[in-house]
Design goal:
By secondary structure, this protein is mostly helical. It contains 13 helices and no strands. Helix 10 runs antiparallel to helix 11.
């Protein structure tokens, strides 16, 4: 069996990455010191209380719900199967998962920027952000972190598809990730234009425009079968159809773009 031999420089970089990854894991625990979960409320309480009361199929693939998130519910089923009544373990689980995301950001950003310092800073910023705390301080924080993991994988796959030759399979894998993230949280269905844009930039075959559209149509079909509608439910019991308007959508889009530039 062929075994690859690493030269001293490669070994040095591998050991350095392992060392930095260990530091990020430690920092993830340090920056979240003091965060704990003492009880559940609303969605967290529902997720925890229905575990064990419903069969696996009903828990992961419920009919008639206002939401359809089987990928997340499956992962939550596995998580709760390990945690059971030890709700304090949720924080530890979420901290470790956040550290994993930070390590991925470190490796991914390092390749893009060509600088370990820049990559490390971005990872630290992620672990220190308020969004990170939101992920860690609740049971459903795992859903947000899981979707972020899928999103980072999609971006990585699409970037390599555009910039590297012979990476066509990455485009098809990213579409699978699109299905998974949309069934983890419905808001990510809106990623469809991203795939269209990537195909346009790549100047790929016309059929590549069809694949993501078919994936989106499949998502809508499955949602209609299970929840009777393709419209996502609003936050806090609101209805998207009643609260959405184009003017506010454009205004919020501009605000978010400015926010990315610190405005």
């Amino acid at each position: 069996m062929f075994e690859r031999k690493f030269d001293p420089e490669e070994k040095y970089h591998i050991l350095l990455d392992l060392f930095v990854s260990s530091l990020l894991l430690i920092y993830s625990f340090i920056v979240n010191t003091g965060i704990r979960i003492s009880g559940f409320y609303m969605d967290d309480l529902y997720m925890w209380s229905t575990y064990g009361e419903q069969s696996f199929i009903k828990y992961v693939f419920p009919f008639g719900s206002t939401r359809f998130r089987p990928v997340y519910w499956f992962m939550a089923w596995l998580e709760l199967g390990i945690i059971r009544n030890n709700i304090t373990w949720i924080v530890v689980f979420n901290i470790i998962f956040a550290a994993g995301l930070a390590i991925f950001i470190y490796i991914y950003a390092g390749k893009l920027a060509g600088s370990r310092v820049v990559a490390l800073l971005l990872s630290i910023v992620f672990l220190s952000s308020r969004f990170s705390y939101y992920n860690i301080s609740q049971l459903l924080g795992f859903m947000e972190a899981l979707c972020l993991a899928f999103l980072l994988l999609i971006l990585y796959l699409l970037y390599s598809y555009i910039t590297e030759e012979g990476k066509d399979n990455n485009f098809y894998i990213s579409i699978i990730m699109y299905l998974l993230i949309s069934f983890a949280h419905e808001r990510y269905m809106i990623l469809l234009p991203l795939f269209i844009y990537v195909v346009f930039i790549k100047k790929a075959k016309v059929i590549n425009y069809i694949y993501p559209v078919l994936a989106c149509a499949f998502i809508q079909l499955v949602r209609f079968i299970f929840i009777g509608t393709v419209l996502p439910a609003g936050t806090g019991g609101t209805n998207v159809a009643d609260t959405f308007n184009i003017k506010d959508a454009v205004k919020n889009a501009i605000s978010h773009v400015l926010y990315m530039f610190g405005i």
